[in-house]
């Protein structure tokens, strides 16, 4: 196993290379205000982050990643365009998998640029691929924006679309909601009684919800129950989209075929095609580069477009050595109404050294 000194030295080399590409080096504080992260991710983040309390600063989190503080910094006073790099520790609770490190070093490269998003995507991907050198890794790409476009185009209520959008990063819940909206899942006896106004309970109220909030929720359930179901055709098309997993040219052909019946995805598929050409211009072998429509849906909650990852082919037990993607919507949420197209990626120098030792 590499020592901390070796890992830090490798991180310095990677960051220096990103600086040579024009990136400004930044060092966000290790302690971050918890309020921002809780607003972004909800209370779920508590299960994955280390939270502490300060009498003056309030709740704080040990930095779970660099992207959020870098976006906040850029949206407050960054140049346009801008490139940033950083290196340092991040902290993630690993209760589900104690074998994984809860503290590790990350090195990142972030691009904020309006002119050509496809080229920015390709720049970040190609630079990280080059930094991985000859390590035995396999890359996979995806695009969360294609699935988002499908959801926006569904012939159903806005309330249902909003619910599906919230659960795009939770595949099981997303699928369960789709089947519920299509009428494939039976309505529970309790919900039937609730909608009919026949359900009563002597149990005391638990939590912070007030009666008017409960009444509003029941009314929303009634409106939803009266809405027509999502069609079987749309449900099958979403299922077919999520099964797309192939080298990029084949995946694009499948996406183009699906866009005939899913016209809402046409602009998103065009962005995938533009990115493919931009990657090709930067020397990436797009004919063997995998595109998986499901990729990034369980671990990349603020990405809303291009996503990618590199995994070790000889060590399937290792987490990804590098991941990244596009997060335009995050800049809007943290920018007080302003936004700028943004894409970035992070690498784990400790894992890179571990893989080098195996060679």
UniProtKB/TrEMBL annotation:
<feature type="domain" description="Aminoacyl-transfer RNA synthetases class-II family profile">
    <location>
        <begin position="12"/>
        <end position="349"/>
    </location>
</feature>
<feature type="binding site">
    <location>
        <begin position="65"/>
        <end position="67"/>
    </location>
    <ligand>
        <name>L-histidine</name>
    </ligand>
</feature>
<dbReference type="GO" id="GO:0016757">
    <property type="term" value="F:glycosyltransferase activity"/>
</dbReference>
<keyword id="KW-0808">Transferase</keyword>
<dbReference type="InterPro" id="IPR006195">
    <property type="entry name" value="aa-tRNA-synth_II"/>
</dbReference>
<keyword id="KW-0328">Glycosyltransferase</keyword>
<dbReference type="Pfam" id="PF13393">
    <property type="entry name" value="tRNA-synt_His"/>
</dbReference>
<feature type="binding site">
    <location>
        <position position="110"/>
    </location>
    <ligand>
        <name>L-histidine</name>
    </ligand>
</feature>
<dbReference type="InterPro" id="IPR045864">
    <property type="entry name" value="aa-tRNA-synth_II/BPL/LPL"/>
</dbReference>
<dbReference type="GO" id="GO:0005737">
    <property type="term" value="C:cytoplasm"/>
</dbReference>
<dbReference type="GO" id="GO:0006427">
    <property type="term" value="P:histidyl-tRNA aminoacylation"/>
</dbReference>
<dbReference type="InterPro" id="IPR041715">
    <property type="entry name" value="HisRS-like_core"/>
</dbReference>
<protein>
    <recommendedName>
        <fullName>Histidine--tRNA ligase</fullName>
    </recommendedName>
</protein>
<dbReference type="InterPro" id="IPR004516">
    <property type="entry name" value="HisRS/HisZ"/>
</dbReference>
<comment type="subunit">
    <text>Homodimer.</text>
</comment>
<dbReference type="GO" id="GO:0004821">
    <property type="term" value="F:histidine-tRNA ligase activity"/>
</dbReference>
<feature type="binding site">
    <location>
        <position position="297"/>
    </location>
    <ligand>
        <name>L-histidine</name>
    </ligand>
</feature>
<feature type="binding site">
    <location>
        <position position="92"/>
    </location>
    <ligand>
        <name>L-histidine</name>
    </ligand>
</feature>
<feature type="binding site">
    <location>
        <begin position="302"/>
        <end position="303"/>
    </location>
    <ligand>
        <name>L-histidine</name>
    </ligand>
</feature>
<feature type="binding site">
    <location>
        <position position="106"/>
    </location>
    <ligand>
        <name>L-histidine</name>
    </ligand>
</feature>
């Amino acid at each position: 196993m590499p020592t901390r000194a070796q890992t830090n030295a490798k991180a310095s080399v990677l960051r220096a290379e990103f600086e040579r590409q024009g990136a400004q080096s930044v060092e966000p504080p290790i302690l971050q205000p918890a309020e921002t992260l809780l607003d972004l991710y909800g209370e779920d983040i508590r299960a994955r982050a280390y939270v502490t309390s300060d009498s003056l600063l309030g709740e704080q989190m040990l930095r779970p990643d660099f992207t959020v503080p870098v976006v906040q910094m850029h949206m407050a006073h960054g140049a346009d365009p801008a490139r940033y790099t950083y290196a340092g520790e991040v902290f993630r609770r690993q209760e589900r998998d104690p074998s994984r490190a809860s503290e590790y070093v990350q090195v990142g490269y972030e691009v904020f640029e309006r002119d050509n998003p496809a080229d920015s995507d390709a720049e970040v991907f190609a630079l990280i691929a080059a930094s991985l050198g000859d390590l035995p890794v396999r890359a996979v790409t995806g695009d969360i924006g294609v699935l988002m476009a499908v959801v926006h185009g569904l012939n159903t209520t806005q309330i249902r679309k909003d619910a599906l959008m919230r659960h795009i990063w939770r595949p099981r819940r997303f699928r369960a909601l789709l089947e519920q909206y299509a009428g494939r899942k039976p309505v529970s006896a309790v919900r039937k009684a609730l909608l009919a106004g026949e359900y009563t309970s002597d149990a005391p109220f638990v939590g912070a919800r007030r009666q008017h909030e409960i009444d509003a929720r029941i009314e929303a359930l009634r409106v939803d129950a009266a809405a027509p179901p999502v069609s079987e055709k749309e449900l099958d098309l979403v299922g077919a989209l999520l099964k797309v997993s192939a080298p990029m040219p084949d995946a694009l052909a499948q996406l183009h075929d699906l866009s005939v019946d899913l016209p809402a995805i046409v602009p998103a598929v065009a962005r995938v095609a533009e990115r493919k050409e931009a990657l090709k211009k930067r020397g990436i072998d797009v004919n063997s580069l995998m595109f998986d429509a499901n990729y990034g849906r369980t671990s990349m909650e603020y990405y809303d477009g291009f996503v990618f990852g590199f995994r070790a082919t000889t060590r399937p037990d290792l987490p990804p050595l590098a991941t990244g993607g596009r997060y335009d919507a995050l800049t809007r949420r943290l920018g007080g109404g302003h936004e700028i197209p943004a894409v970035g990626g992070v690498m784990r120098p400790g894992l890179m050294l571990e893989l080098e030792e195996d060679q």
